[in-house]
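Q: I'm building a small set of examples for a reading group on sequence design. Run inverse folding on the following structure and report the sequence directly after it, with nothing in between.
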């Protein structure tokens, strides 16, 4: 069975606290320069820092790239089925 965007295996690749490449992303709830909240196959992920920006978002492939000064990465809860900001925009 081929993986699709909803079943892409979740990974986090953090490079020098300046770049995070996340796979298994199903949606982005919110983002600003200090906070990115996204939904992954393993639940909600929150990235905090300064000067954060979404370099690339591809929900079809389930990938997100965030750049900036990353201070923390935190997981909580389980993945939600409802859509967030981007899912609502692109339906």
């Amino acid at each position: 069975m081929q993986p699709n965007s909803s079943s892409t295996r979740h990974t986090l690749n953090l490079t020098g606290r300046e770049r995070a490449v996340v796979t298994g992303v199903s949606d982005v709830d919110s983002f600003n320069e200090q906070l990115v909240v996204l939904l992954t196959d393993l639940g909600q992920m929150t990235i905090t820092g300064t000067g954060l920006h979404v370099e690339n978002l591809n929900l079809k492939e389930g990938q997100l790239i965030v750049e900036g000064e990353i201070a923390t990465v935190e997981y909580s809860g389980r993945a939600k089925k409802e859509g967030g900001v981007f899912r609502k925009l692109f339906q």
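The first helix runs from residue 85 to 89.
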